[in-house]
């Protein structure tokens, strides 16, 4: 193309995630099912050599995980091939992008309590074999134990006051030792009267009590107000004291 | 020959010439062949007074045109000399005004002191102009209520449209450049005070120190070495700029509409006579409505 191409795909710090620049200015993931959009999002086709590669735009104004990625989070712990337990999958929009990231080798267990949004998620899972949809209450993880295996990462976006406990219970059941968790916290949902910083600190305390050790915390400006994402490790191996 | 004694003479070459002769001379001219022409055709124009005016006009081409004189140098200090064209203008203006004055004088003499018509009381002088008095339109309270709700609904409707357009645009325009500049809090949890002292952000994130301000994508050191990006075309960058401009305008418009909506809503609530009059807490500004506090009343 004369004078450079219209769209350039830049690989992101996190494998499986890309940034489209040029005419576009967007966070994208590699579409696992080319030719199909999941929730009406824009698709971007790029020619690389002979074959065309299709990417799907991932809206950070809708997805907390996308907002955290653009906010500069250090780790999301979802490399290709990993197994992720996704709590609060809703209609499966972000889940579809996580399924793009972990790729055909990986697995996403998507848990959603609401039947209505669960129905949309089922439709997403029909096209993507690496999503296992679970329409069940995340407060009772034993109810879906027959579908689950051990996972590498737990992602939670449940917006409930007892979010820390929900994550802890699920971690106890399905998260391997040294596995990681990524939690999105909406300050309003935990305590609408307290200062957001105080709410985040309180949640971090609760997590620590459940042996979920936080490693970093990130607020989601400019995409969300009073939201934070906490990333950490579950039951990390004890450090060798001799070191 | 015409009435003025002009006669025409056609040469054998068919060239035309004009001569003005005294009628008495005419006969002698003819007989003596004064002009010495061998063949001469005379055309007698006794009965055609108006005809052949084109000859008259054509004759003027050789005429000298008399121009009006300009101001002589000796009188130059008096300014430009008025020409007829200028005089005509001045004169016409003067006579027109005189005519108007005459009519007005006549009207004043014929004035009836008892004269009355309604326009006298339905109009008034505003400044130096005579203007109609505008009578206030009257509405029933119900009509006013309806009109006000229509206003509010229209603003709501416009705001919804704007909001939807913004949503659609933002779904693929992620403000990556401004996201790099907007501040957010990034906290790292470490185990000891030693770690706090020796904390190095670039090494913790495993990236180049130059990339620390580029929050949206801090590429890892390993990936940096084999990263090669093709050139982006200028046209596409311009296109992007254009779309972002539009987005910015829409965002501003949505903000304005939301302020108007809030102000209209407050107005509507204040009209409610069934509740006690609320107390004003904050005055309105150009980007926020007035804030009132109503007395708390338990509904259930």
UniProtKB/TrEMBL annotation, chain A:
Instruction: Tell me which UniProt keywords the record has, alphabetically.
Output: Methyltransferase, Nucleus, Ribonucleoprotein, RNA-binding, rRNA processing, S-adenosyl-L-methionine, Transferase
Q: What SUPFAM superfamilies would the database entry show?
A: S-adenosyl-L-methionine-dependent methyltransferases
Which GO molecular-function terms appear in the entry?
histone H2AQ104 methyltransferase activity; RNA binding; rRNA methyltransferase activity
Give the UniProt record's GO annotations in the biological process aspect: box C/D sno(s)RNA 3'-end processing
Q: Does the keyword S-adenosyl-L-methionine apply?
A: yes
Q: Show the InterPro entries listed in the entry.
A: Fibrillarin (IPR000692), Fibrillarin_CS (IPR020813), SAM-dependent_MTases_sf (IPR029063)
Q: Which PROSITE patterns match?
A: FIBRILLARIN (PS00566)
Q: Provide the protein's localization.
A: Nucleus, Nucleolus
Which is one Gene Ontology cellular component term of this protein? Cajal body
Catalytic activity as recorded in UniProt: L-glutaminyl-[histone H2A] + S-adenosyl-L-methionine = N(5)-methyl-L-glutaminyl-[histone H2A] + S-adenosyl-L-homocysteine + H(+)
Q: Subunit notes for this chain?
A: Component of box C/D small nucleolar ribonucleoprotein (snoRNP) particles. It is associated with the U3, U8 and U13 small nuclear RNAs.
Indicate the family of this protein: Belongs to the methyltransferase superfamily. Fibrillarin family.
In UniProt terms, what function does this protein have? S-adenosyl-L-methionine-dependent methyltransferase that has the ability to methylate both RNAs and proteins. Involved in pre-rRNA processing. Utilizes the methyl donor S-adenosyl-L-methionine to catalyze the site-specific 2'-hydroxyl methylation of ribose moieties in pre-ribosomal RNA. Site specificity is provided by a guide RNA that base pairs with the substrate. Methylation occurs at a characteristic distance from the sequence involved in base pairing with the guide RNA.
Name recorded for this polypeptide:
rRNA 2'-O-methyltransferase fibrillarin
UniProtKB/TrEMBL annotation, chain B:
Could you confirm whether the keyword rRNA processing appears in this record? yes
Q: Could you provide one GO biological process annotation from this protein's UniProt record?
A: rRNA processing
Q: Where in the cell is it found?
A: Nucleus, Nucleolus
Q: What is its main location?
A: nucleus
Pfam families the UniProt entry points to: Utp11
Q: Where is this region: Disordered?
A: 55-82
Compositionally biased residues, Basic and acidic residues: 70-82
Q: Where is the composition biased (Basic residues)?
A: 57-69
Q: Does the keyword tRNA processing apply?
A: no
Provide one Gene Ontology cellular component.
small-subunit processome
Database matches in InterPro entries: SSU_processome_Utp11
Per UniProt, the keywords (alphabetical) are: Nucleus, rRNA processing
Q: Tell me which family the UniProt entry assigns to this protein.
A: Belongs to the UTP11 family.
- Protein's UniProt name: Probable U3 small nucleolar RNA-associated protein 11
The species is Laodelphax striatellus
């Amino acid at each position: 193309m004369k004078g450079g191409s219209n769209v350039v795909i830049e690989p992101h710090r996190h494998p499986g995630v890309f940034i489209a620049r040029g005419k576009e200015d967007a966070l994208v993931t590699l579409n696992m099912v080319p030719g199909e959009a999941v929730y009406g999002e824009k698709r971007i086709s790029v020619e690389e050599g002979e074959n065309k590669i299709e990417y799907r735009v991932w809206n950070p104004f809708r997805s907390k995980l996308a907002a955290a990625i653009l906010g500069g989070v250090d780790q999301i712990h979802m490399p290709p091939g990993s197994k992720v337990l996704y709590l609060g999958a809703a209609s499966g929009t972000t889940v579809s992008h996580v399924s793009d990231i972990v790729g055909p080798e990986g697995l996403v267990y998507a848990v959603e309590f609401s039947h209505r949004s669960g129905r949309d998620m089922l439709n997403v899972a029909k096209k993507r074999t690496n999503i296992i949809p679970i329409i069940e209450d995340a407060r009772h993880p034993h109810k879906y134990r027959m579908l689950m295996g051990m996972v590498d990462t737990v992602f939670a976006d449940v917006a409930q006051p007892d979010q820390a406990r929900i994550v802890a219970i699920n971690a106890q059941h399905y998260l391997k030792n040294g596995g990681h968790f990524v939690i999105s916290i909406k300050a309003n949902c935990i305590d609408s009267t307290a200062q957001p910083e105080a709410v985040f600190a309180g949640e971090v305390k609760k997590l620590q009590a459940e042996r979920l050790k936080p490693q970093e915390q990130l607020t989601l400006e400019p995409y969300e107000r009073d939201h934070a994402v906490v990333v950490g490790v579950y039951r990390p191996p004890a450090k060798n004291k001799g070191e | 020959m015409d009435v003025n004694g002009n006669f025409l003479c056609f040469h054998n070459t068919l060239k035309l010439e004009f001569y003005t002769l005294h009628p008495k001379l005419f006969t002698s001219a003819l007989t003596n062949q004064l002009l010495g022409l061998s063949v001469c055709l005379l055309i007698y124009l006794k009965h055609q007074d108006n005809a052949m005016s084109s000859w008259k006009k054509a004759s003027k081409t050789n005429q000298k045109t008399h121009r009006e004189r300009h101001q002589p140098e000796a009188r130059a200090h008096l300014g430009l000399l008025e020409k007829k064209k200028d005089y005509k203008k001045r004169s016409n203006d003067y006579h027109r005004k005189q005519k108007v004055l005459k009519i007005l004088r006549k009207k004043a003499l014929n004035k009836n002191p008892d004269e009355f018509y309604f326009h006298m009381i339905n109009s008034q002088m505003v400044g130096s102009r005579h203007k109609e008095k505008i009578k206030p339109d009257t509405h029933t309270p119900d009509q006013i209520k309806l009109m006000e709700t229509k206003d509010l609904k229209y603003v709501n409707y416009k705001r919804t449209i704007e909001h939807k357009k913004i949503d659609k645009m933002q779904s693929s325009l992620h403000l990556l450049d401004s996201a790099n500049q907007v501040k957010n809090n990034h906290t790292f949890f470490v185990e000891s005070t030693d770690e706090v002292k020796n904390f190095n952000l670039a090494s913790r994130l495993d990236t180049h120190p130059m990339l620390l301000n580029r929050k949206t994508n801090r590429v890892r050191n390993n990936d940096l070495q084999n990263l090669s990006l093709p050139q982006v075309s200028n046209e596409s960058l311009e296109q992007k700029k254009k779309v972002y401009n539009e987005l910015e305008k829409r965002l501003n418009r949505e903000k304005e509409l939301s302020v108007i909506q809030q102000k209209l809503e407050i107005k509507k609530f204040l009209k409610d006579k069934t509740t006690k009059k609320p107390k004003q807490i904050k005055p309105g500004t150009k980007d926020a409505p007035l804030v009132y506090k109503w007395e708390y009343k338990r509904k259930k």
